[in-house]
Amino acid sequence: MSLGYLMLYLPLLIAVSCVIGGTRHEKPALILDQILRNAAWITTFMLGIYAVLQVVSWSI
After folding, report:
1. Are 38 and 23 in contact (CB under 8 A)?
2. pTM for this one?
3. Consecutive sets of 10 residues in the chain, 60 residues long: mean pLDDT of each?
4. What angle do CA 23, 29, 30 make, to 5 degrees?
5. Which of 24, 28, 35, 55 is most enclosed, with most CB atoms within 10 A?
6. Of 13, 10, 4, nearest in space to 42 by CA
7. Which domain holds residue 16?
8. What is the DSSP letter of 27?
């Protein structure tokens, strides 16, 4: 994975996490907690998909 893809992923991750956190809570502490949780969940999900695609590509 190149650095260019990472530069596209980080702003998207921040924007999506902020929107989800901001729409679910009103207190800043809860919003920040939700942002961090969503960012971790989204990153874990994307890494899982990446791992599956790597395994599939090795067997082809």
Report:
1. no
2. 0.83
3. 82 95 93 96 95 88
4. 40
5. 35
6. 13
7. 3-59
8. S
